[in-house]
Write a structure and sequence with these properties.
By secondary structure, the protein is mainly alpha-helical. It contains 3 helices and no strands.
């Protein structure tokens, strides 16, 4: 996916974002449970788990769809 010359940098950037998101999420859940009842935190987590598959459709396209669009654009040239 990435050239060999920048592959390590790409992986390190990916890991920085992943660990930063994990830290931010932990801070958010800790703050939510500190300011409310723990059962409220569990209810919010359950609703997010239920709603997350529907948010997938809003997010980035599937890799197969991206490849198909690239092929179609190349064929149109």
């Amino acid at each position: 996916m990435f050239p060999k010359s920048i592959r390590a940098r790409a992986i390190s950037a990916y890991l920085m974002v992943m660990y930063g998101a994990t830290t931010s999420g932990s801070c958010l859940w800790g703050a939510l449970s500190a300011y409310s009842v723990v059962s409220t935190t569990f209810i919010v987590a359950a609703w997010m788990l239920i709603l997350s598959p529907s948010l997938h459709r809003v997010g980035p396209l599937n890799e197969r769809k991206v490849r198909a669009r690239r092929r179609a654009a190349e064929c149109a040239r």
